[in-house]
Amino acid sequence: MASIQLNNIVKRFGSFVGVENMSLDIADEEFLVLLGPSGCGKTTTMRMIAGLEHPTGGQIVIGGEVVNEIDARDRDVAMVFQGYALYPNMSIYDNIRFPLRMRKVPADQHDRLIRRAAEMVELGAFLDRKPGALSGGQRQRAALARAVVREPQVFLMDEPLSNLDAKLRASMRVQIKHMQRQLKVTTVYVTHDQIEAMTLADRIVIMNRGIIQQVGTPDEIYSDPANTFVAGFIGSPPMNLLAGEARDGIFRSEGIEVPCPRTVTGSVTLGIRPEDCTVGGGHLQGMVYGVEPTGDITYLTVQTGKRAVEIKAARDFRAPIDTPISIGFDLSRLYFFSENGERIRRPA
Amino acid sequence: MRMSLRACMWAPARLCRSKPMASSAHSIKAVAPATARPSTGTLRRRSPRMRSAFPYLLVAPAVLYLLAITLYPGIFAIYQSLFVVRFVKWTWAGLDNYERILQDAEFWAALWNTIIVGGLSLGLQTVIALALAYFAYRDPLIRGWRIIYLMPMLFMPSAVAFMWKLAFNDGRVISDLLMTIGLTHGNVDWLASVWLARLTLIVADVWQWTPFLFIIFVAALQGQDQEIEEAARLDGASWPAIFWNISLPMMRPVIVVAVTLRGIDITTMFTNVYIMTQGSPGGATETMSFFIYRQGFRMFNFGYASAASVLMLAMTILIAQTLVKRAFRSGRS
Prior knowledge:
By secondary structure, chain A is of the alpha+beta class. Chain A is built from eight helices and 19 strands.
């Protein structure tokens, strides 16, 4: 068990910047999720912690020790790969045993450790099969068992669920979270799926173009986004971002008129989450563009000018398209962003 | 209002699109008969039988050529092996040739030599190629310059044989080198000792053909899943441990196929024997190919030579077939 510190980490691939001047403290036993679109540097960051990539600059500290010059195999870090990376020539038993053999764990303990790890992921019945004879979910669990068997200081997981179907993903998510709480191992988890990030993380790090956008608990990320990137990335559907003009305590845009703090002036962007909108109320005038019932909730898309605004309406809400509609906003849940995308916070 | 506007926007587009479509369809109709008629005319003149035979006629030259240089000589050899042939005089002998061969000490000696020289040479080049591939495959230079390592393979076999003959026997280059570093005193007569003579053949073959295996092994190693290598690194495996526990077992089918191909080639080793040793000393380096050549073209026992060829072919097929089959069966399970 160990904490991890990244101090001003830089990674460049030629002229391409993978990670730019990143600093991050990961607490002992924490479940940290790196979230961002593809190419944002989240996997590169994880691979640098693992020792599979060498940082161009900065320092990586694991458990109080600078590990920049320590080889991947000596870092006591376990990783679960997107493609599982099981050894196809070995049975599942031998796959799980491999890290024990390589780390010179006494042979008389192997069997007990392997069976315990296999039980933890409910794989006991498949130990003598080869990876080729297992389903995707079973392979994923085998990869997890191989990672936990030697009780490493740090777990790294690189999109471990992205090759599974939606149903399996949900159940594996719970298993992974349960296992992490049980083992109390510091975990860094990379994903581009915000649901995974929100459900698993103690803290989420949102990255874009190699730069950290925001670090916070899932609640903070969701209800207190630092900029338009975070606001537009989190939530499904994500926050509505509407550009307009603010003057004298009123924000105006095509079809929209809402009060705003007097400190907000000039060209700004209004952010409002779909669930903070209600049908009827008069802050937004538009036309019904589409109604999508999903059972427990109905997604309503309203067109105003050239923009579409997403609203979560009541489950029984129905309306024909191209009829005029009025939408109200929860005024305590309005977010304003300046022209460069940064959040305008109320003076405390 | 909105609905009607949408309708207006769609209307011209639909008109626009329908027009060229109609005209193009029309033009196809107009052009088609003019170009198609003569060709259908000639096709119709062919009989149905001709039409079904046409594809076979197209590949016939290639097939005939291949049959002529492989199957015909093969069958001819089998046929000839049943006769005692003295130039144009063929006397029916049945299986006499085979019976005599199986009692011929020279045949068994040649078989033994082939196995010894070929086996040692094959084993040596496989190990060297694997070792080189292991050290080299992560090097980016190898990727770009593979062709350089193929150079010895590109030389004419007889030229290589003459080169080694010069180095070992005629030019005494190797002896000189050995004397310089103090390993021997005086000149080494490579053809005076059974094992030294065999060694010269092995060295020549290893030098020329290790690159072939090396290239194949490097390609197999570079083609393996990078994630698996990384997973093994994080599991605490050293590079040698990864190679031994993971890469090597995964390469097994490739290794078996490459070694089988090389093995088939080695069993027919002739050029080096003919140029470098002529089978001396005392037939210790006479391989099967050289034995067959000697029986056929020096002693003119064509039936006898054919029978030996047939035996050798049968053995090669049998060994290669079982090896490859076994490698792939265990690789699958």
